[in-house]
Amino acid sequence: TILTGGPGTGKTTTLRSLLDLLDADGRSYALASPTGRAAKRLAEATGREAKTIHRLLEYNPGEGFGRNEYNPVDADMIVIDEASMLDLLLANSLLKAIDPASHLLLVGDIDQLPSVGAGDVLRDLIDSGVTAVVRLETIFRQAANSLIIRNAHRINRGLMPETPPDAQDFFIFVKQEPAEAAELLVDVVKNRVPRKFRLDPLDDIQVLSPMYNGLLGVSNLNEMLQAALNPPSAKKPERKLHGRTFRVGDKVMQTANNYDKNVYNGDIGRITAMDVVQQTVTVSIDGAPVMYDFLEMDELVHAYAISVHKSQGAEYPCVVMPAATQHYMMLQRNLLYTAVTRAKKLVILVGTRKAIAIAVKNNKTTQRHTALDWRLQR
Fold first, then answer.
1. How buried is 354 (Cβ within 10 angstroms: 0-12 exposed, 13-18 middle, 19+ buried)?
2. 370 within domain boundaries
3. What is the domain extent for residue 60?
4. Which ranges of 69-214 does DSSP label H, i.e. alpha helix?
5. Share of the chain above pLDDT 90, in %
6. Are 136 and 3 in contact (CB under 8 A)?
7. d(Cα 98, Cα 86) in Å, to the nearest integer?
C-alpha cells in the first residue's frame, strides 16, 4: 500500500494512528527510511524505533544484505517513510527481504525530487495501478495557518508563492545581481534572521542552493558563509584539503554511509576538535563525537550551504534559498517545492521573482523512463 500527500495533509498523524492500531492488535512492525536523517525524523514523529533501510536489511560491507528472500525481515508490517527517495537497487533489495505474508506500506510525497540513484520507484508504483494508493489532499486547519505549507501547495499547483505584508514565516528578498544577492544572503543568515527570529545561524538555518557553481552556488556560498560565521583564528586549528580549508567550528556534512562510525550520507555536524599531531578531527553529529583521521576527511564537505538534492529527507527550522536566473537549468517546480518543504518555521528566498516564476512554471522535469510501471502491469 502507498500513502502519499503533501505537507500538512496528515501523513504522520495517519501513520501514528495505524501504528497504535497495530500495537492494540499485537502485530509486529518495523519502521525504516532510506537515509539516517529521515530515520531519525521518523523515530521522533512516531515515538518508535526507526532504522535506515540498510540497517533494517542488516547490511554488511563486502557481504551485502543479511536480510533477503532466504532470510526475510521478521515483521507483520514494514513501513518505509520518505519513499520518494527509494532508488531501483535499494527497492529491489527491500522487496526481496519482505516475506510474502508481510505487508509493505510506502509513505512519501511524489511531488518531491526523485531519488538520487536510478529510477523513480514511488511514481512508477503509483502509475502502474497494481498497488493500493491512499492520497491525502486536505490541508488541516492548523497547517493551513502556515504560509510555508500554503505556498508549498501553491508552488505545486504552478502558482507563485504569496508574501503578504503581514507574513510571518515566508519572505522573498529581491536582488537582481548575483553578487549582491550573495552578499544579502550572507547578511540574512548571519544577522537578520538571528536578530529577528532568535535562530542560530549554524544550528537552525540551512542554505539550500539549486547548483554547485556560480556566485549563488553551493561552493561559493560555503566560502562566503565560512568567512562570515567561522573566520580564521589562532585558537582554531585548521587543515587544507582539495583546495578547501576545514577548521574547528566548521559546519560539515558526511557524504557517505559509514557503518563503522554509525554516520550516514547527509548527516550534518560541527568540527569540535582537530589534533594536528595525531592527525585526527572530531565532529559532533547529533551530540555524539565522531573521530576521523585526516585520510578519512574525504567523507566530509562544508555544509553552511548544501544542494537541494542533499537536503532530501531532512527538516530545518529555517531554509534560505537563492533564486537566480543563472540557475535556469535547475529552476524546476519540484526542486523549489522540495526546498520549501524542508523548512519548519521560516523560508527566505533571495534573488529575483523572475527566477522563482521560472521554477514555478517549469514542470517539465526530466522524466525517468524505467519501464517499471509497464512491467508491473504485465
1. middle
2. no
3. 2-140
4. 88-96, 121-128, 141-144, 147-156, 178-187, 193-197
5. 70
6. yes
7. 15
Give a yes or no: residue 168 inside a domain.
yes
- Identify the CA nearest to 306 among candidates 200, 226, 212, 191: 212
If asked whether residues 19 and 55 sit together in one domain, one would say yes
Domain co-membership, 8 together with 116: yes
Q: Into how many domains does the chain fold? A: 2
Q: Are 207 and 223 in contact (CB under 8 A)?
A: no
Cell of 328: 535556469
Could you tell me if 52 and 169 lie in one domain? no
Joined grid coordinates for residue 362: 517549469
Q: Are residues 18 and 127 in the same domain?
A: yes
Same domain, 136 and 164: no
Q: Alpha-carbon distance 59 to 27, whole Å?
A: 25
Whether residues 123 and 159 fall in one domain: no
pLDDT of residue 162: 94
366 has pLDDT over 60: no
pLDDT value of residue 201: 97
Please state, in angstroms and as integers, the Cα–Cα distance from residue 102 to each residue in 1, 70, 96, 99, 145, following that order: 12, 14, 12, 5, 39
> Which of 107, 140, 173 delimits the end of a domain?
140
Cβ atoms 10, 140 nearer than 8 A: yes
Q: pTM to 2 decimals?
A: 0.89
User: Which grid coordinates belong to 7?
Assistant: 505537507
Query: Hey, CA dihedral for 244, 247, 253, 256, is it positive or negative?
Result: positive
Angstrom distance (rounded) from CA 80 to CA 145: 29
Cα distance between residue 146 and residue 341, in whole Å? 11
In a domain, 160, yes or no: yes
One-letter amino acid of 9: T
Q: What is the CATH number of the domain that holds 28?
A: 3.40.50.300
